[in-house]
Amino acid sequence: MQTSVTTIERFIFDQEHRYPEATGELSNLLYDIALASKIIAAAIRRAGLVNILGSANARNVQGEEQQKLDVIANETIKNCLSHTGRVCVMGSEEDENIIPVPPEYPVGKYAILFDPLDGSSNIDVNSAVGTIFSIYRRVSMEGRGTASDVLQPGCKQVAAGYVMYGSSTMLVYTTGQGAHGFTLDPTIGEFLLSHPRIVTPRSGKYYSVNESNFGRWEKAMQAAVRGLKGESAEAVAPKNSRYIGSLVADFHRNLIAGGIFLYPADSNNPRGKLRLLYEASPMAFIAEQAEGSATDGVNRILDIVPTQLHQRTPLVIGSREDVGFVADTLRRAAATRSSGPVVQPAL
Ligand code: FDP
């Protein structure tokens, strides 16, 4: 039996102690998130048994049907964070506006954004779902936090991570010192270090995209995806298709095994479907820390300055060479369009 393990607490503590000026507030905030995710994991494990699957008969701000577990996850995170004195304001994919800390509690120096249950259309079919979080240092000088604290570009994140509730529960996070993964040992209720310093392959085996949208993509994106499938074998290694439809699960597989996840803009979603602040930015921070990259097709995700809480963005994320191939294909098509006769890439 293994008697020496690294718990998430010990790992966060060790990392924090590399910075003598650290107050421990961020570390404690990360423990709060780990605690919330254990509660959510327990609710997900029991879901089929206690009949909490299914719709809560409500719609969230995006007009999507809220599942009961979405509501549970959202409330759990808010309850675990709001009283601690570590955050000044929160933003949730499930709430229309920023979420203030209740007046009876003190505020702290961090602003946090979260997608409490990503991939929720997978809940009723027992597939992997996840929680995504993103932490910024507040920029408002006083008071109880404002929208400016959460409307920051991804490059300003001080920490980001996700929890995947799959065959096991895993938490992957970064504070800018590499991306590290922990697996929940349900017998002792602790996240244990299982994937220290994750490095994603430079080019991967998989491409993940909802190809039912193919006919609604611009021609250049169609050409890029055809390239990933093997039509540009001289430029990028041909890939196998894998798509769950749950960002956390699709991203996690490709992070470990290598590959690329795409959610391009299409004629139904001209600005893309995924949310910049709750999904793209935190995942981009992790991807870059694992030596991968993330763009909206061309521009670096972490450089995008948000103007709206629920802003959407196209997302192309994963192994660096594969993301680069898509960006090159799109750039070449744009250059061709702007210089003379319109030549569409062949389908
Ligand atoms: P879901 O709608 O199930 O919550 O942004 C949410 C998300 O899932 C992502 O997790 C997932 O990658 C994507 O949407 C799936 O969208 P499609 O069903 O359009 O492929």
Beta-strand residue fraction:
15-25%
- Sheet bearing the most strands, described? 8 strands, mixed
List the secondary-structure elements in sequence, H or E.
HHEEHEEEEHEEEEEHEHEEHEEEH
Tell me the Rg in angstroms: 20 Å
- Which small molecules are bound? 2,6-di-O-phosphono-beta-D-fructofuranose
Q: What is the number of strand segments?
A: 17
Shape: globular
Neighbour order of strands in the largest sheet: 4-3-5-6-7-8-9-10
Helix vs. strand class: alpha+beta
Instruction: Detail the poorly predicted runs.
Output: 341-347
The share of residues in helices is 25-40%
Straight-line distance between termini: 57 Å
Mean model confidence by pLDDT:
92
Q: Give the number of helices.
A: 8
Protein architecture, described:
With 347 residues, this protein is α+β, with helices and mostly antiparallel strands. 31% of the residues lie in helices and 24% in strands. The chain contains 8 helices and 17 strands. The chain has helices at 8-16, 25-46, 68-81, 147-150, 219-231, 247-257, 276-289, 320-338; strands spanning 55-59, 65-67, 87-92, 99-100, 110-118, 129-137, 157-165, 169-174, 179-185, 190-195, 206-208, 240-241, 259-263, 274-275, 293-295, 312-313, 315-318. Strands 4-3-5-6-7-8-9-10 form an 8-stranded mixed β-sheet, with helices on both faces. Helix 2 (25-46) runs antiparallel to helix 3 (68-81) and helix 5 (219-231) packs across helix 8. The model is unreliable at 341-347 (pLDDT under 50).
